[in-house]
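Late entry, evening session. Most of the bench is empty. Finally got around to the prediction I had been postponing all week. Sequence below, unchanged from the version circulated by S.P.
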Amino acid sequence: MGKKHTIGIDVGTTGTKALLFTEDGEVIAHAYRSYPLSNPCVGYSEQNAEDWWRAIVETVREITDGHDVSDKVAAISLSTQGGTLVPTDKMGNALRPAIVWNDARCTEIREKYLCEVGDADTMYQKTGWRLGRALLALEIRWLRENEPETFKNAEMFLSVPDYVSLKMTGIAAIDLSNAGINQTANIRELRYDSELLRFAGISEEQLPRLVKSGDVIGNLTEDAARELGLSTKTVLVAGAHDQYAVALGAGASRDGDILIGSGTCWVVTAIGSSPDFESGLAQSVAAVPGLWGSLMSLSTGGVCLEWLRKNVAKGSSDELIDFGTLDREADKSRAAEEGLFFFPFTGKCGEKARLSRASFVGMDLSHDRFNLAKAVMEGVAFQIYWMMHSFKAKPRKDGIILAGGASKSEVWSRIVADVTALPVKIPKIADLACVGAAILAGYGAGLYTDMSDGHRRFAVGESVVYPDPERAKMYSLAYENYKKHAEALGMIYKK
């Protein structure tokens, strides 16, 4: 019969990517489809849920075309955006555009929650996610008050993984790493919370089945199999929120593993054996059985360097400097060592450092655009290191994992290693969300004994950047100065 195959699908906010793998983790094919976000008015962010399904169908057909695997795909699993609401009829048809996780229409509903349920910490202690201006509990209540016909006609209130699950198998099911983000489930007790459902005005029967990542949800229906070009023998396995799928794909599957995802936004994901509600950080059930995850984000981590590149560090002909040149020239700088620091926009770190504006501190006439670029790289690394101290889970001695854009920069990767004084492991494969989903698919289909076995089978190679003792010593002193400056700036921005 030959080797079995798996498909890992990442359903993101701006597009969907699908990868076809052999059971040994060899990439056979990949495909991507984008789709739009709409902003019908200020603060609103919406999406056509059917676009997700259309993108899945098109990418799956593209990656399987010509490979004669229609009856060899053992399982599919998903990495998904979290916290996006789509109300549907009993057949799973969307009744309105989906309200996306970054929507901000629920400010007034938030105040009603505080009056009816309790303080903001109540939501966090139940769901692991803080009370904001979006996510499903508030959005469902918003529908109830602002679109009563939609609310009345809705048979189910779904999000991305359960909407797709219903399309594929006829069963609406959501993994626990996503359920907490939706803010309808108590992740400590692994069940829906009656108080949150009462606030939203819905019953548990209107929500998807709760399952663990790696559980088999069901076989593809005949209709789904026909659309996807696969067999009804293919099963859908419960996936994970994208951050946890990426963590699994990168090999962060043990207590103490820490992953730094570097893109426009830098996200630190710490894996631990127990939840860490005392930290105040976002908590989720992780993709690996028995483990939990904590998240903290630096929303402008990557965009700061791109801003500098576009607006300051331009070439003589006003063309953007390529990243190779920026890396090479910035590497000659000694920004932090000379007292030049950059402070990105941040949330709270320490007692006083909440920075609502970015800043350069310590500039003099000897500094040029490449000194500023080095300061940006160092400032982001300092801030990430500071954030890491907020986690209960402490990094393992064998190092931390760096994935995403910064991992392609030899200079930035080395700065992270030297600032943290830890080895930095860099996965050699992109599309880690799809890799994590495919590992879950193979585990659910019985191809792997556990998640670690799956990761080994995929042979996601890595390079390792080791810290230089002398640079690490220098950065240790510079980091203390960085914190002092940040706390002083925090006091200024309070005024």
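Two things to note before I forget:
The first helix runs from residue 49 to 64.
The domain at 252-427+461-495 is CATH 3.30.420.40 (Nucleotidyltransferase; domain 5).
Will write this up properly tomorrow.
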